[in-house]
Amino acid sequence: MPVSINTHEIQCDCNLEDKSFFTRSYRQFVPSRVSTSCNRATTWLLKCNPPRNAEEIYQELLESPLETQQYKDSTKQIELDLARTYPDEQYFSENSKGQAALRRVLYAFSKYDHYLGYVQGMNFIVAALLWHSSEVDAFWLFIGLMEEYELRDIFLPRLPGLSKHCQIIQLLILDLLPNVHRQFAEHRISSEMYATDWLFTMFGSVVPVREMVNILDQFFRKGWSFIYRFVIAILKCLEETILQARDSIEILGPLKITHQSQREWKHFLELLDGGKGKIGWEELIERSRTVDIDENYIKLLHRNFNVETGQFNLR
């Protein structure tokens, strides 16, 4: 019996951005959900080159059996992580349409890339994609991120991609925030100690799913350079707090909050502007655009990174 993939409905209102004020107001009170991807997700998909028979391949993945131990381990971990994915959002609550779609996409990916399988963090990224896209499109957008944007390197055994990005972040901190770099060095703080969750979830563990559209927009446009700028923007906001910290616990405290609820997300934003409560995610993204990094040097580092050794091959 074919697995039904037509129950999922996108939750965003991106397509209303160009509508009249009266249409937007009406939809706020009488929401109308659709199963087709929004305009932004459609634009993202153009960068991912899905196959012509994308739906057919996805359906076959869902229906095909796979009995490897890797797949069994993946499905077990997926089931544990479903309830941890944006727990404040009703659409991803237990037995919801959103949770069912999230399960199917993650199961399908575990078959598609059976060597890698599912790794924690993927759930936040896929859920954020589902907020804006059809189930089939969300699957191929995730494949695009993994294959075209080098996201897969992060999840490989020994985590070479994580090492790559954290080394680059540390270089940028040395260049752009030398006082923060000195404080980190004095207390032996590596970027892996605070940025791992950010990178594994593309900030999905920090940014609410309703706000992830701007993160995804920028990532599909700028790639990892955006992520580096965003990290620097966060650290710059917290620079005074970091420099005043007396030990590693006080340094990591603001950076290592487990952001699982709206209350914690708001608290994190308050920390970023010293408790004033005036900064939002869009403002933080705008600030990240002003971070000056050498794009050509970043590309050089990426081209010369050895996934096998986890090191840069620079002469």
TrEMBL record:
Q: Which InterPro entries match?
A: Rab-GAP-TBC_dom (IPR000195), Rab-GAP_TBC_sf (IPR035969), Rab_GAP_TBC_domain (IPR050302)
Superkingdom of source: Eukaryota
Recorded hits in SMART domains, A to Z, give:
TBC
Q: SUPFAM superfamilies from the xrefs?
A: Ypt/Rab-GAP domain of gyp1p (SSF47923)
Per its UniProt record, what Gene3D superfamilies does this chain match? putative rabgap domain of human tbc1 domain family member 14 like domains, Ypt/Rab-GAP domain of gyp1p, domain 3
GO molecular function, a single term: GTPase activator activity
**Pfam families associated with the record:** RabGAP-TBC
Residue stretches making up the Rab-GAP TBC domain: 34-223
PANTHER family noted in UniProt: GTPASE ACTIVATING PROTEIN AND CENTROSOME-ASSOCIATED, ISOFORM B, RAB GTPASE-ACTIVATING PROTEIN 1-LIKE
**Name of the protein in question:** Rab-GAP TBC domain-containing protein
